């Protein structure tokens, strides 16, 4: 396994980043849908209320709304993130120590991680807008009317409403239609709604992500070895994901609310107004809505992410040598 700060080549980073991105989406998307709905819809009283309501109204499909766009773009985004991280780290090491293969300091890893988080925002913001709006778009329920019956113990029966008033269909018919509709109705600005919160979220969380993974790998490396074993990678990857999402969750809540707010009459004038209004109406705890889900999702996802990451790097090193 490779040392957390270094890798065989930038291309290996990009290839492994694409592999691990698809793996992460496949594991965590249903929990992400529940998280987004809890963050943006105050009517849900908790995780299980949201899970049950989503399943009752939309069945299993409801948890996978908008999945196709992240699956199609996650390889590119993850490759860009890990490629940017390695590229920045190599340049920093070359500038500070004279060699790209020198062992980086913790500040080098932090700065490179921060840069990788910032770069991905330009690609992820439009896809995040489409994903969040599709995840929060619930299927309208057909109206029903009650027929009363006579008698003290009679129970009113329920029957479908008479035809003639069709139930309105969903506004968005898929990721591409959602992107086209947002661009037509709200312009380019609509596709990048919430990007300021996304910049704060990804910049700090990716700095935390890569730094914590490097530190944990060092701590979990057995004496006499240069690298942690598979169990060490699993623990380091899972904990790094949890720590990153603990940092990211407040801005993740604001980002989701700003992106959903673009539909119809807008409530929020910007990031600070959204934060102040949300805290005023729901208390400081609102900034940590979805934290439990984020952490539960982050641990297994990032265990899989970093084991895949290290395995691909090891395979690439073997092919190159």
From TrEMBL:
Q: Where are the Solcar repeats?
A: 8-91, 104-219, 228-315
What is the reaction catalyzed?
NAD(+)(in) = NAD(+)(out); acetyl-CoA(in) = acetyl-CoA(out)
Q: Which PROSITE patterns match?
A: SOLCAR
Keyword field contains Ribosomal protein = no
List locations, semicolon-separated: Mitochondrion inner membrane; Mitochondrion outer membrane
Q: Where is the composition biased (Low complexity)?
A: 134-158
Name a GO CC annotation attached to this entry.
mitochondrial inner membrane
User: How does the record classify its membrane topology?
Assistant: Multi-pass membrane protein
Q: Which UniProt keywords apply?
A: Membrane, Mitochondrion, Mitochondrion inner membrane, Mitochondrion outer membrane, Repeat, Transmembrane, Transmembrane helix, Transport
InterPro entries reported for this sequence? MCP_dom_sf, MCP_transmembrane, Mitochondrial_Carrier
Annotated spans, Disordered: 134-159
Kindly give the SUPFAM superfamilies that the UniProt entry links to this protein: Mitochondrial carrier (SSF103506)
Keyword Transport found: yes
Family note: Belongs to the mitochondrial carrier (TC 2.A.29) family.
Q: What does this protein do?
A: Mitochondrial NAD(+) transporter that acts as a 'metabolic gate' in hepatic lipogenesis. Provides NAD(+) substrate to mitochondrial SIRT3 deacetylase and enables its NAD(+)-dependent activities in mitochondrial energy metabolism. This triggers downstream activation of PRKAA1/AMPK-alpha signaling cascade that negatively regulates sterol regulatory element-binding protein (SREBP) transcriptional activities and ATP-consuming lipogenesis to restore cellular energy balance. May transport other mitochondrial metabolites having an aromatic nucleotide and phosphate groups, such as acetyl-CoA.
Q: What is this protein called?
A: Solute carrier family 25 member 47
User: Origin organism of this chain?
Assistant: Equus caballus (Horse)
According to the entry, what is the taxonomic lineage of the organism? Eukaryota, Metazoa, Chordata, Craniata, Vertebrata
